[in-house]
Amino acid sequence: MIKLCYKDWKTPRSYKLLAGSIAVFNFEWSNFNNYFVTFYGSNKIRTPDMVILDTAYFDAHPEAKPNDEVLRRLPKKP
Question: Which of 16, 38, 48, 68 has the fewest other C-beta atoms within 10 Å?
Fold first, then answer.
């Protein structure tokens, strides 16, 4: 699991697009749509088999942190 922070509404009247970021990767998306939030961003239960990928995890496992090339491949509009 990676913490994704929602930042602001891009279409305040329709509430269909919002911006977000993944701080641990220093990566930002300018537009999330409601499908993405429902499908990927609404899981509120952490099961025992899930691992949180944060700075502490990447400090312990530096080989797991994506490099710049991998980060460039992340979708610009999920």
Answer: 48
Higher-confidence residue of 12 and 45: namely 45
Residue that has been written with the tokens 């490099």 in this structure: 67
Region for residue 33 given its phi and psi (left: phi exceeds 0; alpha: psi -120 to 50; beta: otherwise): beta
Residue 28 lies in a domain: yes
77 to 6, 34, 52, 74: CA distances (angstroms):
14, 12, 23, 9
What is the total count of domains within the chain? 1
Report the C-alpha gap between 62 and 77 in whole angstroms: 27
What is the rounded CA–CA span in Å between residue 76 and residue 57?
Answer: 25
Take residue 51 and report the two structure tokens written for it: 């691992």
Q: Which tokens in the block code for residue 6?
A: 């929602």
Residue 20 lies in a domain: yes
Residue span of the structural domain in which 15 resides: 5-72
Two tokens, residue 2 = 């990676």
